[in-house]
Each structure stands twice: as structure tokens, then as C-alpha cells.
Amino acid sequence: xxxxxxxxxxxxxxxxxxxxxxxxxxxxxxxxxxxxxxxxxxxxxxxxxxxxxxxxxxxxxxxxxxxxxxxxxxxxxxxxxxxxxxxxxxxxxxxxxxxxxxxxxxxxxxxxxxxxxxxxxxxxxxxxxxxxxxxxxxxxxxxxxxxxxxxxxxxxxxxxxxxxxxxxxxxxxxxxxxxxxxxxxxxxxxxxxxxxxxxxxxxxxxxxxxxxxxxxxxxxxxxxxxxxxxxxxxxxxxxxxxxxxxxxxxxxxxxxxxxxxxxxxxxxxxxxxxxxxxxxxxxxxxxxxxxxxxxxxxxxxxxxxxxxxxxxxxxxxxxxxxxxxxxxxxxxxxxxxxxxxxxxxxxxxxxxxxxxxxxxxxxxxxxxxxxxxxxxxxxxxxxxxxxxxxxxxxxxxxxxxxxxxxxxxxxxxxxxxxxxxxxxxxxxxxxxxxxxxxxxxxxxxxxxxxxxxxxxxxxxxxxxxxxxxxxxxxxxxxxxxxxxxxxxxxxxxxxxxxxxxxxxxxxxxxxxxxxxxxxxxxxxxxxxxxxxxxxxxxxxxxxx
Length: 544
Prior knowledge:
- By secondary structure, the protein is α/β, with parallel strands linked by helices.
- The chain has helices spanning 2-22, 39-54, 73-85, 89-114, 117-128, 131-137, 143-159, 166-180, 184-187, 189-200, 209-233, 235-252, 263-274, 276-292, 298-312, 329-338, 345-363, 382-390, 444-448, 450-463, 481-489, 503-509, and strands spanning 29-31, 36-37, 61-62, 65-66, 397-400, 416-421, 441-443, 475-478, 495-499, 514-518, 523-528.
- A hairpin with a 4-residue loop joins strand 10 and strand 11 (523-528).
């Protein structure tokens, strides 16, 4: 058993670490069906680098402003690695990938406990070969770490459903606390699983009511200090962004969607296209799992409660995201491997199918269900931005229309801003924060007269608890393309990074203070002829 565990952890960790080293930041599709990139990784990596550089670990920031989009446990883990080993895409991702590799080992142990070591190995391979697990587990994102914490919580609960032992009690509570500090509401779902099991399990096979309440209290108690600190020190921003916008807005409100599909069509399509092997094996095993509920064994009840809850949870959130399907992958794999109509023969059959499936996925990486370990990126802007970074210019860089999916924000530029053409001062973002009042989003006119208006922006930032000018004019909003050209003309010492579609307008404008530098068919640089040099090399690698 120990040898099997070691092999699974090593296999899973190697798969994830190869990707962590070879895929650039935000360099893969989180949703391979709709081809939605992992823009959030660049957002979070900017916060992690800020922690390492500034030393303020309790309060995440993005480009100088507070960032309470998600709790910071995964950022702390990533920042600790970068602090010890230096900043690079591998060191940022290394500890998270390793934790996900260990979680695959726990899946093996859970499957072995329920059925056999072959079933455990099959469940682990099904998890490791899942496209979503591979992509998210090798990135600085919340979802795979959340799934790993869920797996840990269920490992302790399955080992001791009554939570009588101190190890299971504290292990379950600590795992749930870690999940909450990774993704607040979704992190509490193992407690809901515990509640469902408590309702349906025989009295002698469940925790006493007092013990169950105690473990819930301990889990919340371990997670509470960070929330208490933010509600005390940064109450206004934290309540607005984390509670009203992220939880109530995206979770229960009417946020903008990435596709026009219904919830059912969105998730069913992705379950089928991203891992048809896992879905087929689960559907075959589902009748046996349902029949097993009549025996009311702890393993069958807990597996069913865990699986049903995590598959139902995405329908409770009004926002649709393929990442919500990452936590259910583990219980799907365990159910598919451990419950079958074929008895012990099924253990070897599922293991064989899982291993053949892994080989097929590696052989066809271009498919939505494929696995790629190549050194690659889906961001065409990453290479020219890295080359520009290596030139070590001291000019500020303004990236137009977020053509880089925020990739530039993880590079060590002298000064970075974004500019967009939009009628919305927040760029169409779903935001309850007063970004215009604080001067985080500014008009072209504001930017042209920034020295005169900086004081009022600074005062507003102070009202929101930000004691820094750094976030001011992070985003410049032009009403139309003519205003965008005026922005370039009025800032001759700034460099600009444009999508290729703006090339005719820029050439027609005749901008003598700048020169066009071709960087490929997708984008181009508009460099100031007044090149400023920096006396120090970039603080971390430009190839992120």
C-alpha cells in the first residue's frame, strides 16, 4: 500500500510540475470548450509578487489596490515558495502542484479503503488524467487547492465517520478551514456533506450532535482570524468586494456570463467533452452506488453525499464557470472506480481503461479532453511583452484593450497601466467599488491632468483605506478610438502595446514622438523615441 501511495503521489506531482515549469502564466485555457483563458492566474500572481516584494501578506493587492476577490491561503503558499526560492513561474506554482499531487495520493487511499488498492489506483489515475485537474493544479488558482482541501476533509471523515479520534477531528476541521481560506462559501461545502451524512447515517455510525457542532465551530474558528482582521481594518473595501460583489453578486446576483447557455447545457456539455471517459465510467457505476445506499454503510453514504453535493453546487451559483466542475472530479473518480456491476473484475477493468485513457489524452493534446506537457502558451502577447521587458526600458508601458489577459502585470516593468476603449468607466466589469472616485479608472482627460487631480483621488483612496498612490490611473478609459490616439499624442514619453487591429488608426494618426515596432501578427509596440533607461536589472525573470 505504501509503495502504491508513493507511486501515485510521484506520478501526479511529476505531471503537474512539468506543466508548472513549461506553461507560461495564464498560458492555457481553463475552459477548453469556450476557449476561455486563465486570466485569473495573472491577476493572482501579481498579488503574490506584491506580497513577496512589499511584505504585507495579510492584505492581497492587485496593482496597488486591495484585492479581496478570494481569500489568500493559496497566495500565501505560493508567496512562501517565491520568498524562499526566488520569483519564477515554477517556484510560484511548485507548492500548489505538490499539494495537488498529495491529494491524488489521498484519493488512492480512499479508493483502497472503500474497495481495493486497484480501485484506489484507478480513481487516482482518473483524477490525474482529468484535463481540468491538470490545468488548474499546475497554476496559481483557487480551484485545485480547494478540491485538494475537500479531498483531505473527506479522507479524515471516511476514516472515522464518528470523528471520535482527535486526529480525524482536527484533520477534518483543519482541512475545512483551509478550504474556507481558499474559497469562502465553496470551502464550507465539506461541512454540508457532514450534515447530509449525519441526517442519513445510522446513529452509531455518525458523530454525536455535540461532536459535529464542535468540529464545525473549530473549522470556522481556525479560518475566522483573517476575516476578522479584514472586517476590522479594511471593513468598507472587504465588505463591498468580497461579500457584496463576489459572494452575493457573482454567487447569488446576476453577473455577466461568458456564454449564453443555460446552466444545465453549460455543465453537461463540459462534463461530456472535457472527460468522456470519467463520465461514462461514473454513469455505469451510478446504479450500484445508488443500490449501496440501502445498506447504509458509511463509505457508500459519504461517497453519495459528497458526489451529489458537489455536482449540485454549481447550479446554486448564478455565475457559470467550468472551474466549478473541478471539485467534483475526485468523488466522480472514486465512485466510478469503487462501485460497479461487475464485482472484483471491475477494479482491473477501470484501472486499465484509466491508464489507456491517460495515454490517449497525452497523444491528442489538442482535444478538449487532451493533456499537453509541451512548453507553450495560448497568449500571443506573452513573447513580445517578455522581450520588451528584457530591454529594461524605464518608460511606463500602457497596454491597450487588455490584449495580454493581464500577463503584463506579472512582469517587472518600471510602470504599467492599462487602457481600453469603452463607454463604461469600469470597462464593463461587474464592480460595486467606486473605482472612478478613487482614480483607479480614469478618463483620458483625467490622465492628461493627473497631477492636478491626484490629490482628490488620493483623498478618496484614503476613505477606502488605501494609503498609497500606486493604484491611481491603473486603467485609462477612452470613449472612442479618437480619444485613444489623443492619449498617445499627449504622452510622448510613454510606450504602448496595441492589438494588431489598431495598426491602421495608429499609422494614419502620424505620431512623431513614437515609432512602431512589429511583434507579430497579433500585436505591435509603439515605443517612445525618448527611451528611458533603468539603472537596475529586472527584479525577477521577464519570461513568466
